[in-house]
Amino acid sequence: MQSSSEAWLIQNAEIDGRRGDLRVRGGLIHSIGLDFEPAHDERTLDARGGALIRGLNDHHTHLLALSAALNSVRCGPPEVTNEKQLSDALHRAAQDSPAHQWLRGVGYHESVAGDLNRSRLDQLGPRRPIRIQHRSGARWILNSEALQQIAHSKSAQQNTPLEKDPAGRPTGRLDRADSWLRKQVPPVPPDLDRVSALLTQYGITGCSDATPDNGPATVALFERARKRGIWQPNLRLMGRKNWSISDRSEFSQGAWKILLDENQLPDHATLIDEIRSTHALGRGLAFHCVTRAELVFAASVLEAAGCTPLDRIEHASIAPPDCVEWLARLPLTVVTQPNFIHERGDAYLESVEDRDQPWLYRCRGFLEAGVRLAGSTDAPFGDPNPWLAMQSAIDRRTHRGGKLGPEEAISPEEALAMFSSSLEAPGHHPGPLRSGESANLCLLTQKWALARDEMDHRQVAAVWTRGRRVDHAD
Ligand SMILES: [Zn+2]
Hints:
- This protein is of the alpha/beta class and 474 residues long.
- The chain has two domains: 58-62 and 190-440, Metal-dependent hydrolases (TIM Barrel, Alpha-Beta Barrel); 72-184, Roll (Diaminopimelate Epimerase, Chain A, domain 1), CATH 3.10.310.
- Helix content is 30%, strand content 23%.
- It has helices at 63-70, 83-95, 110-113, 118-124, 144-151, 178-184, 192-201, 216-227, 268-280, 292-305, 321-328, 339-351, 364-369, 386-395, 412-418, 448-451; strands at 8-15, 18-25, 28-33, 43-46, 52-54, 56-61, 73-74, 103-108, 130-134, 139-142, 162-164, 170-175, 204-209, 234-239, 252-259, 285-289, 312-315, 333-336, 372-375, 441-444, 460-465, 468-469.
- Helix 12 crosses helix 14 (386-395).
- The longest helix is centred in the middle third of the chain and has 14 residues, at 292-305.
- The chain is globular.
């Protein structure tokens, strides 16, 4: 299905600030110049002065979870903010789906109905097996029907990670046990076609998937989807420690992803040895750090093991000045999610200590200290639209219009650069478009001087991935 190459002449575009034409051949940018004559085998597109930029790269997403989320009930802000709305959303989803089918909720936050458990969920939801994911991604809450179905499965009997109350009854809460839960519930095949189309619509031509349990099976799934022509974006997969991607794969292998939890930090010395052996294989580490303590722990083990440019800190949600200075001395990249300023900023303004608020999801502070900074959405835990993330990095506005760390604001050009660096070298400024590079391109409807004032995905006019036009507007 995949036509290996297309020949395009994009005329009258704005390329790095100047009017020009760009020719695509064999999957690459062939040449950039002025007033090219169309060749007989070329398709032409008049850009009408619109900016032609690199396709965007989302440096931290969870694609299979995004697919599942697109078929899930939203259970948290901004769509759902109270118990009544949660109950309505669950009952509506039950009406719209076959009887007995599991309902899957996502994005739950305590501001909706407190610290949710099985009995509260039984009262709020329909009589269906229901599982709801906390928006942190770390917790699931199951209702009684769901627990009953799980109790029937053999694998659930042994080593159950289900939280129990003092009487030994499951509370319905389940922490950091995604792969266990997946084995208990009926499988839902991923809808990668839909995910690919959604990302393309945003001008995304590449993603790094940051799911910790990625391994050969995930690679095989995406390779099959690529062969069938339903998966377009370039892809780098972080994941488990011990596996390697085949040299023949079209995808690349990213870092070993480690989820830190400040209440259960791993043994320092063992981890340092493991980091060294991972580095020896030419692979980096990616540490999930959302608290100060986690950030300090990650910086200290990386420094002790010998940090490399392949190493990354995911989120760095709270980064006080002493931590930023420390990170700046290491060759790593921080991968941030400015969309959380918009999506979660109101909750942060209420719940995060005053002294930490200026250090939330920083941008300017990292750039000024010389820390390499890459942009991402953490979809589906954040909105998958990178334009929303870029706009949040620029205006630092919360959903309700508050301001979170306004001195951390960056320019539209800096925001775009965070999403333009390559999957292999996130946070490295990619420089102007060059002939010879892979043709991952995004054409906007207007010139950059106008586009920068409204960072909105609706100005994406056309998208090419490895030289093929992949948006369906054509
Ligand atoms: Zn993530």
